[in-house]
Specification:
Elements: E1 2-7, E2 17-23, E3 29-36, E4 44-47, E5 53-62, E6 65-73, H1 104-107, H2 115-118, E7 126-128, E8 135-139, E9 144-150, E10 153-159, E11 164-171, E12 176-183, E13 188-192, E14 199-207, E15 210-219
Antiparallel strand pairs: 1-2, 2-3, 4-5, 5-6, 7-8, 8-13, 9-10, 11-12, 11-14, 14-15
């Protein structure tokens, strides 16, 4: 866990010190780092996909003249770089890359931070036929987008690889009708729905205890 605390001298903002503490789940302090000049502590803290801490807080000595500052710390609570673009790793491709040129048509590696906006269909569930009467197929997203964060700050993580996800189907009354764990190599699930009651249903994908995709479909 990452915990932030602040303390100062009597009647003086000049001596304000913020400490970032890394603790175990019992609250025992593993390590600490002093951060000077943050008058009110940090407003938000999130953990990135590679287990680094990103903290947001006001910097300055005299109200209301301060600036909002973001700090990124690695697992040893040392300052880390703030990357402006996502990294692309060779492991995302099913075969070794011989050069620094990646053919997107073959590899399908997301290299643009705007990819979810430009191609939102790759992050969505596809259900066909819809409406259905006998059988319908749910096609899973090509990659998963997970949004997490604290107050006033959020982080979007794009997952190219994962072990499995959970596919769930609910009726209009919120009753769970179907649930199945789906590994990444299985890109679609077929449902025999002839015995289901006519009406509208909601299919959703749950990954890391969060819903990352959902879609409605109808049974005649």
């Amino acid at each position: 866990m990452i915990i932030n605390g602040a303390w100062k001298g009597p009647n003086s903002w000049d001596t304000t010190i913020n400490g970032v503490f890394k603790t175990d789940t019992l609250g025992n302090i593993i390590m600490k780092k002093d951060l000077f000049g943050f008058t009110n502590g940090f407003n938000s803290c999130i953990t990135t996909f590679d287990n680094k801490a990103v903290l947001i807080g006001p910097f300055g000595l005299y109200y209301p003249y301060w600036q909002t500052v973001m700090i990124k710390l690695n697992s040893g609570l040392e300052y880390d770089s703030i990357y402006t673009r996502p990294f692309t790793y060779d492991s995302l491709c099913p075969y070794p890359i011989a050069s620094d040129t990646i053919l997107l048509d073959d590899c399908e590696v997301v290299v643009d931070i705007d990819e979810p906006i430009k191609n939102p269909e790759k992050t969505e569930l596809k259900i066909f036929p819809n409406p259905a009467s006998q059988k319908t197929t749910i096609e899973l997203p090509e990659y998963l987008v997970r949004v997490s964060g604290g107050f006033g700050f959020s982080a979007t993580t794009i997952y190219h690889q994962w072990k499995d996800v959970r596919l769930e189907v609910f009726d209009l009354f919120g009753k769970l009708i179907f649930s199945e764990t789906v590994p990444q190599h299985k890109n679609s699930v077929s449902l025999h729905v002839s015995s289901w009651s006519p009406g509208m249903y909601l299919a959703r994908i749950v990954f890391m205890n969060e819903v990352v995709a959902r879609e409605k479909f109808v049974i005649n």
